[in-house]
Amino acid sequence: MADDMEGFVPDLLNPTADIALVAQNPGIDEEKGRRIIGYIQIGQARRPIYQPCEPQPLLGATGVTVNDTWLPKAGLKRSDVSLMNILKCRYRDPVTKKKINKLPPAAVLNKAVAHCMEAHFHVPYNAKTLVAMGDLAFDALGGKSLRKPDGKPASISDYRGYTLPDPFRGRSVYCVLHPADLFYDRSKVLPTRLDWLRLKRLRAGLWPLHIPTRTILTDSWVQLSSLLDEARHASVISCDTEFTYDTGRPDEEGLLTMIGLGWESSQNGGVNGAQIQWMHDPAVTTE
C-alpha cells in the first residue's frame, strides 16, 4: 500500500507445516525486522526488548501472544506453522505521508487486498488448514460472501471456532478472532482459548466428529421394539419432542410431529438414539 513498496514484509512459509496462520497486515516491528523477546520495566513504563531478524509477520506484541499463548493451546510452536498476512505493506496516510497500522478506506483497501492476494499470497503445498485471524483474513479467504440468517454480512465473530463452508484453494479455513482484539476486549479471551484448543482437536482428526450411521425403520416393528427395549434398560434417557399449534382446528391444543430419544448404549458405550416422526399420517394430539 506504500506506492513505492517500501516496507514490504514477506510471508514466512514453512514447506512442511500443515497449518498457516493468516493475519491482517504488518506493523512497524515486522517492517523493521525486530522481534520482541521480552519486556523491561523502566519507571512506570513497560518497554519491549528487541532482537533483530528478517522482516516477517507477527514479530510485535501480537506475535508475542500468538507464540506464548495461542499456539501452545493448539499444541503448536512458531516453527510448526507458516505465518502469512493478507496485506504485505502498511498504509501511508495521504495527509501526513507517514505509514500507519490502520487499514485504509474501503476503496483503497479492496484494491490492495486484490493485488496482494493475486501477486503475493502463496499457500505452501503441505498446508491443509488456513487459520483466518480477524475480519480481513475472514473476508479474503471466502467469508465476504457469507450472510447471517437475517441477510446481513457475516463476520469473524459469527464463524469463530468453526471452518468456513467452502475451502480456499483446496484448504479448509478455520476462524479465530484477531489476537490484537484481545488487548482491548478481555471478554473475548475465554472464547479465543476454546477456539485454539479446538484447532488442536481439528488437527488430530477429533473434530468435527462424523455423523454416526443410521437405520431408517419403516414397517419393521421388530426393529423398533428391539431399539426401545434397549432404551428401557438405560439408566438415563433424554427425550425431546416437537409439535405445532397450526392445526387448523380450534379444539386441538397441538399436534405432536416428532419424538427424539437418546441414551448410552449398553453394547458399545456410545450414544444410541431414535427419532420417531409422522411423515404423512395425521399426528397425535398432545395433552
Describe, in plain words, how this protein is organized in 3D.
The chain contains 7 helices and 12 strands. It is α/β, with parallel strands linked by helices. Strand 2 and strand 3 form a beta hairpin. The protein starts with 18 loop residues before the first strand and ends with a strand.
Entry summary:
By secondary structure, the chain is an alpha/beta fold.
SSE blueprint and pairings:
Blueprint (H helix, E strand, L loop, with lengths): L18 E5 L4 H5 L1 E9 L2 E8 L8 H13 L8 E4 L5 E2 L6 E2 L5 H14 L9 E5 L1 H6 L15 H4 L12 E5 L12 H15 L17 H12 L4 E8 L10 E10 L6 E7 L6 E2 L2
Parallel strand pairs: 1-4, 1-7, 7-8
Antiparallel strand pairs: 2-3, 5-6, 9-10, 10-11, 10-12
